[in-house]
Every structure is written in structure tokens, then in C-alpha cells.
Write a structure and sequence with these properties.
The chain contains 23 helices and 14 strands. The strands form three sheets. The protein has a seven-stranded mixed β-sheet, sandwiched between helices. A five-stranded parallel β-sheet has the order 1-3-2-4-5, with helices on both faces. Strands 12-13 form a two-stranded antiparallel ribbon. 44% of the residues lie in helices and 10% in strands. The chain is α/β, with parallel strands linked by helices. The longest helix is centred in the middle third of the chain and has 21 residues. The protein folds into three domains: 159 residues, 3-Layer(aba) Sandwich (Rossmann fold); 182 residues, Rossmann fold (3-Layer(aba) Sandwich), CATH 3.40.50; 73 residues, no CATH class. Helix 14 packs across helix 15 and helix 20 packs across helix 22.
């Protein structure tokens, strides 16, 4: 590749860092200003510009432009500022990008745009988007359930691009080996359908057989074209997410981040909290608030941990309760989803089951020690809810996980104040440390970003046939030992500033589990070395 084409290729472009010799050799003579810069000089110049941007969305747009032009420099800069950049590149600012995607569009960012009306174009689309690159990782979304903000049609492609940015920043996945994929199945959001500048298919979501067949053609075509690929599903709707995962997970390395990634990170957070409080998992009573993809996925993973620590399934299940819009879930409810059913309770377990139609009533009745919010219902962990939990549990673990920030069930300072400092808190998006009564509370970020990059890297390094339950469990345990239990106010999860270290630990644990189960398709005599060697780093 030479000349203008090379300058316009973000995977190969070095901009002003092309040396004079390279400029002569590659047909770049006269295409750049005379000064040859080092990557550090480029990064400094870019960071200065970044700092002039007034809002986080402006900052994100600036970084996206850099990403579009020069991936190496983008990741070099991200590496220097990882904890500061994550909330800008990723959640919560990514939600603003998605909501304004059509209006702000300037570049398709090397994504593959699949159109549900044209299944015959799937193969060509994947080929065009890959452009000869060997794709090892795809993040695909149909954007029916973006974060907690719902259906955003084609605009949801940004979540696939953003998750992949985190894969590289955290785990060193080579950006030339990844592909973000949008499945444009239409949208049910009226404002998009009515927006003359909306860039996606202008019709209601296609569901049912046509949708299922499209997904199947996509998955099988992608597998044929890229036989070493790990397939990450993101932000599908509650009705399709588990169905799709179950269809493919036993014969291909398939991952659903909302179900499995969140399950892992919350299990780690629970284990971290128990390490701090010296409690046993078997004594916990677990309440899900918002029993959708994430809520049920997390409960399944935490329950698996109860069982792994010696409890029978029946005993473990007795300690789990779920609340959704209708209140506590009961087994006579015809609207239960297949994922909710196993967690539904019987009315005769309670004196006044008819009263259990709101969170507070349920908290009073079941006395949870762990409360996890994945409801998209902001402010729902009220003072009374937190006070009631605190009255019944020495150390309530309260995790408001709904994203973005505006949807959090409660903010950490309130939870800590209302619980007189007894609650252990983790949130979906980053929050600043808080000082209350002389104790500084670091708030762990229970976001799947802490684990999905390492999970993917470990699976890819092992070329594992599938992503097994054992590999997932290994990931959940990998962050243990990184939580400092000796400090008052310590977070239940390691800080995002240690993202690279966490990702490497997770990757090693996952690859080890794959080997232990005989799922690896390459020999791995030295797993840590293999994981280390597989990581791309941003340099010219
Ligand atoms: N922190 C993380 O890593 C992480 C990961 C995944 C999802 N999430 C967040 O969790 C939330 C849910 O995501 P999801 O993928 O499970 O979506 P989902 O649509 O599958 O589930 C949401 C559930 O909440 C229920 N709900 C809605 N309003 C409610 C109310 N008023 N009271 C009780 N329940 C209510 C819905 O009926 C549904 O069952 C989102 O905000 C998302 O950002 C966070
Ligand atoms: O994207 C995130 O920040 C986490 C999670 O996958 C979500 O859907 O909220
Ligand atoms: Mn998600």
C-alpha cells in the first residue's frame, strides 16, 4: 500500500511519523509537512487538542476522528490515559454518541453493516469490511437493547465499535483482527423512523422466522469465512439474547456480554465484598431487581458460585429472589420469560404475596443481603429500601448497575449515607471516590469491561473450541486477590487503572481452564507467555 491510499488506511497510517525514507519509498513525498514526529510528540499534540474540547461528547468525537485516521496513535494515547478515557470512549459517553449517531455521522469506522432485507449480501459485506484482514473477533449488535436506553436501530453500531476499542485498550487484541457488526433489523423507535436524517432501515423491527434465519445465515457465513473467530453478542433484546446464545454456544466460541460478561463481573464483585466482610457466600440472600438479560444472567452465574462452593441446587435456589416490573416473580405468572421461570417463587411461601408488588415490600419480606439492579429504573433504590436492607444485613451489598449514569438505581454517596457506611457498593459506570465521615470510599465499577477483554483474549489464545462454563467460572475467580481487603472503604473490584493487568490475569485463567478441559486447539506449553506474546501494542 502506498501514497494517499496508505495515509487513508487507519491500520497502517503513521501520519507525521512516517520517516523521510519511508516517505520516499512509499510514495508519500510531499504529502506531509516536513517535520517527522515521534509517536510521543503526536500523542502530546493530540492530547492538547483533546483537552480543549468542552464536553465529553466532543472529546469522544475527537478521539473517534483519531481512531478513524490512525489506530496506532489512538491506542497509544488511550494507553497513557486509560482510566480517564474509558468514560469518554466507552460508557457513559458512548450512549450520547449512539443517540446522536446519524446526526454526527462522518465515518463508518470499518464496521460491517448488515441489512435484514438483504441476506444475500451477508458474505460480500463481511468480505468488504474485513478487506483481506484475518478476523479473530467480532462484536455484533442488533441494537434492540442498547445499555438501558433501548432500541437504537443502526445507530447502535457504536456499541460494537466501542466494545472493540476496550478489547484492544484492555487486552491488547490486535485492532486489525477485529470487526464490529451491525445487524439492521429496523427499529421500533418512532423518533428515528420519523427522522429524515436517520441512516438505518426505516421500518419496524423484523421479528420471527425472517429474523432467526438472518441471524443463522450471518453466524454460519461468519464462521465459514473466519474459522478462528470468537463471536461476541452485545445488546440484543431480552427475547432474543439467550435464545441466540443457547443456539450457538455449544459448537462455537460464542459469548453474550450482557448475560455472561455481567454475570462474571458481578460474581467477582460479590466475592470481593465477601473477602472484605469475611462472610460466607452460603449465608447470602440474593435479590435481582430487573430480571432481563443481565439480571437473570448474573443470578445464574452467582448461583453457580453458591453451588461450586458446596451447596445443592435446591438449597442455592431458595436463596434467590427476582423482582421485575410486576413485583416479586411468582410461578403462576403467565408472562414469565424462560430465563425467569427457574427463579420464580410460590405464593404460599409468603403471608401476603399479593402485597409483594414493589421493591420495598419485597426487601422487607425476603431480607436480602445482596441487591443487584439491572432494571433501567433510575432512583428505584430509595432511602427506605437501603435503610430496610441495612436493618436486616450487617453488610448489605448494593450494586446499582443500570447504565448509563442517568439510569442508575441509586448513586453511591446516597447508598453509603443511608446505610451509615455499612453498604458495599459497586456501580455500572465510573464514579469518583467519596469521603464520608473521614473514610474514603473507592467505588468498584461492576462493568463487564473488567472481564470481557481478557475472556476473549484467553479464548483466542487457546483457540478454544467453545467458551465453556469452566472458562467463565475461571474468569470470575481471576480478579480475586486483586482486591485490597485491608483498607477501610476499599472497592469490591480492582480499579479501572489496572485494566490491562486484570485482562491479562483473566486471559491466563481462561486459557488455563480451556486447556484443563481439553478445549484448546493449539499447544500451550507456557500459557502466561503465550498470552503475553499475543498482545498487540501500539507502536510503529
Ligand atoms: N454494569 C454492567 O456491566 C451492565 C451489563 C449489562 C447490563 N447492564 C445494565 O442493566 C440494564 C438492563 O440491561 P438488560 O440487557 O438486562 O436489559 P433487559 O431489557 O434484558 O432487562 C431489563 C429488565 O428490567 C425490567 N424492568 C424495566 N423497568 C422496570 C421497573 N420499573 N422495575 C423493575 N424491573 C423493570 C424489564 O422488564 C426487564 O426484564 C441496563 O441499564 C444495562 O445498561 C449493566
Ligand atoms: O456497555 C456497558 O457499559 C455495560 C453493559 O454491556 C450494558 O449493556 O450496560
Ligand atoms: Mn451491553
Amino acid at each position: 500500500m502506498r501514497g494517499q491510499t496508505l495515509l487513508n488506511n487507519p491500520f497502517l497510517n503513521k501520519g507525521t511519523a512516517f520517516t523521510l525514507a519511508e516517505r520516499r519509498e512509499l510514495g508519500l513525498t510531499g504529502l506531509l509537512p516536513a517535520t517527522v514526529q515521534t509517536i510521543d510528540e503526536q500523542a502530546e499534540q493530540a492530547y492538547n487538542q483533546y483537552q480543549t474540547k468542552p464536553t465529553d461528547l466532543d472529546k469522544r468525537l475527537f478521539l473517534s476522528q483519531l481512531f478513524n485516521e490512525n489506530r496506532t496513535l489512538f491506542y497509544y494515547l488511550v494507553d497513557q490515559h486509560v482510566a480517564d478515557f474509558m468514560p469518554v470512549v466507552y460508557d457513559p459517553t458512548i450512549a450520547d454518541s449512539i443517540e446522536n449517531y446519524s446526526a454526527l455521522f462522518i465515518n463508518p469506522q470499518n464496521a460491517a453493516f448488515l441489512d435484514i432485507n438483504h441476506p444475500e449480501d451477508i458474505a460480500a459485506t463481511l468480505e468488504n469490511a474485513a478487506d483481506g484482514r484475518d478476523i479473530r473477533l467480532m462484536v455484533v449488535t442488533d441494537a434492540e437493547g442498547i445499555l438501558g436506553i433501548g432500541d437504537w436501530g443502526v445507530q447502535g453500531v457504536d456499541i460494537a465499535v466501542g466494545k472493540l476499542m476496550v478489547y484492544t485498550a484492555a487486552a491488547g487484541i490486535d485492532p486489525a483482527t477485529v470487526l464490529p457488526v451491525s445487524i439492521d433489523a429496523g427499529t421500533n423507535r418512532q423518533t428515528l423512523l420519523a427522522d429524515p436524517l436517520y441512516l438505518g432501515n426505516r421500518h419496524q423491527r423484523i421479528v420471527g422466522d425472517q429474523y432467526d434465519a438472518f441471524i443463522d445465515t450471518f453466524v454460519t457465513t461468519a464462521q465459514q469465512k473466519f474459522p478462528d473467530m470468537y463471536l461476541h453478542f452485545e445488546d440484543f433484546g431480552r427475547a432474543t439474547a439467550t435464545k441466540i446464545l443457547n443456539k450457538y454456544k455449544d459448537n462455537w466460541p460464542t459469548f453474550n456480554d450482557d448475560i455472561q460478561g455481567t454475570g462474571i463481573v458481578v460474581t467477582s464483585a460479590v466475592l470481593g465484598a465477601l473477602a472484605i466482610t469475611h462472610e460466607n457466600i452460603q449465608d447470602q440472600i440474593y435479590l435481582t431487581y430487573g430480571a432481563g438479560s443481565a439480571g437473570t444472567g448474573i443470578a445464574n452465574r452467582v448461583m453457580a458460585e453458591f453451588m461450586q462452593q458446596g451447596m445443592s441446587e435446591t438449597d442455592a435456589r431458595r436463596r434467590f429472589y427476582m423482582v421485575d416490573k410486576q413485583g416479586l416473580l411468582f410461578d403462576d405468572d403467565p408472562t414469565l420469560t424462560p430465563e425467569q421461570k427457574p427463579f420464580a417463587r410460590q405464593r404460599n411461601e409468603f403471608e401476603h404475596p399479593e402485597a409483594l408488588t414493589n421493591l420495598l415490600a419485597v426487601v422487607k419480606a425476603v431480607k436480602p443481603t445482596v441487591l443487584v439492579g439491572t432494571s433501567t429504573n433510575p432512583g428505584s433504590f430509595t432511602k427506605e429500601v437501603v435503610e430496610t436492607m441495612t436493618a436486616n444485613a450487617t453488610y448489605p451489598k448494593i450494586f446499582p448497575l443500570s447504565n448509563p449514569t442517568k439510569l442508575h438505581e441509586a448513586m453511591p454517596n446516597d447508598i453509603i449515607n443511608w446505610s451509615n457506611g455499612h453498604a458495599l457498593v459497586a456501580t455500572g459506570v465510573p464514579v469518583e471516590p467519596l469521603t464520608i465521615n473521614g473514610i474514603t470510599y473507592e467505588i468498584g465499577q461492576a462493568n463487564n469491561m473488567l472481564v470481557y477483554p481478557g475472556l476473549g483474549l484467553g479464548t483466542i489464545v487457546a483457540k478454544a473450541k467453545i467458551l465453556s462454563d469452566g472458562m467463565i467460572s475461571a474468569a470470575a475467580h481471576a480478579l480475586g486477590g486483586m482486591v485490597d481487603v485491608s483498607v477501610a472503604g476499599a472497592p469490591v473490584l480492582p480499579p479501572v487503572s489496572r485494566l490491562a493487568e486484570m485482562s491479562e490475569r483473566v486471559a491466563i485463567a481462561v486459557a488455563q481452564a480451556a486447556v484443563a478441559e481439553g478445549l484448546n486447539q493449539v499447544d500451550l506449553p507456557d500459557i502466561p507467555a503465550a498470552v503475553h506474546a499475543a498482545q498487540w501494542s501500539p507502536k510503529y
